Amino acid sequence: MKKEALLVSACLLGEKCRYDGGGKYCAEAMRLAERYEFVPVCPEVLGGMPTPRPPSEILGDRVIAIDGSDVTAQFRLGAQRALAAARKAGAVKALLKSGSPSCGRGLVHDGLFSGKLVPGNGVTTALLEENGIAVCTELDFAPLES
Ligand code: SF4
Q: If you measure from the C-alpha of residue 23 to the centroid of ligand 1, how many angstroms do you get, rounded to a whole number?
């Protein structure tokens, strides 16, 4: 039987695409591979950003890098491309990386590079959810197992 497609943050699969040049391999999430066909995406790379890159945070309706540059356009482009990848694969669910200004869900950094988290969604998560794609993070993906 064909497995259901699941959009996944590429860094959770170990891809070294994070701002610091590393990955965030999540061994627990790998058990989902029994049930799902992973569709890996890194929205920030899809948006044309290099790796490594300066960390960015959401501030109001913008995304600002720690060097002060406005990277909102790249984040929005990456979100659109991640949505396109989900649609192409027929994915209606996503497993994304918590805390990221692209992939976070429920909590994101406060925009001041203070280390504090505040309620909110990453740019890609928000766009996916607006388009009917259910997003979980690696911190709680029980809904993907039921
Ligand atoms: S944008 Fe998402 S997939 Fe890419 S490194 Fe950040 S958390 Fe991982």
A: 9
Is residue 95 lining ligand 1, measured as CB closer than 6 Å? no
Give per-10-residue mean pLDDT for the chain (146 aa): 96 98 96 97 98 98 98 98 98 98 98 98 98 98 92
Strand-pair category, 93-96 with 134-137: parallel
Q: Residue 102 Cα, ligand 1 centroid: separation in angstroms?
A: 7
Measured in Å, residue 34 CA sits from the centre of ligand 1 at: 23
Question: What contacts 76, CB < 8 A, 6 or more positions away?
Answer: 47, 123, 127
pTM beyond 0.70, yes or no: yes
- How far from the centroid of its chain's Cα atoms is residue 78's Cα? 10
Pairing of strands 107-109, 117-119: antiparallel
Phi, psi of 95 (to 5 degrees): -115, 110
- What are the Cα distances from residue 2, in Å, to 5, 34, 35, 40, 87? 9, 11, 9, 18, 17
